[in-house]
Amino acid sequence: MENKLANPAPLGLMGFGMTTVLLNIHNAGFFPLGSMILAMGVFYGGLAQVIAGIMEFKKGNTFGTTAFTSYGFFWMTLVGLILFSKWGWIGGAPKGFLGWYLFFWGVFTFFMWIGTFGKNRALQTVFFTLWILFLLLAIEHWGVPGIGHFAGYEGILCGLSAIYLAMAEVINESLGKTVLPVGARD
To answer: Is 27 inside a domain boundary?
Structure first.
């Protein structure tokens, strides 16, 4: 009996991409941080990516499992860092210390980016721009003024690259041909 599993990557990529774009529209200075971004962080950026990661585990994809579950939990911890102090559960992290949180996510992302070298160019772009985003946000939280605004624009690019890849995977698979190229490695 054949057990054909669906590709969970578009779900995870859309959860990541849309949430990243929305947060970085805020970081670029267009809108304040609000419940819409935080809800996306918990449910679509967080929970949907964790589900996609579990589905990648079932398919035997170590890279997909690690990426989607890790970044899903990143979104959940980020929302927790924002809300726990607002709710009075515990004091917020000092700005400089939050820089280290973002820096270590950047280190993780750098190694995940290396893991994309045998994969398509679109996925490489997602991880490269995410690595840069984490570094820019860490530097901003270490006290370099104005860099967070620039990071917002870079983050929008990162999120849009994930959305493009998600839609390319859905459309190309649905139509059985390449409509949206991803720069496949031969």
So the answer is: yes
Contact 48, 25 (CB under 8 A): no
Number of domains in the chain: 1
In this prediction, the residues of the chain whose per-residue pLDDT falls under 70 are 1-3, 185-186
pTM equals 0.94
The region, left, alpha or beta by phi > 0 then psi within -120 to 50, assigned to residue 23 is alpha
Q: What is the 3-state secondary structure of 89-155?
A: CCCCCCHHHHHHHHHHHHHHHHHHHHCCCCCCHHHHHHHHHHHHHHHHHHHHHCCCCCHHHHHHHHH
Judge whether 135 lies within some domain: yes
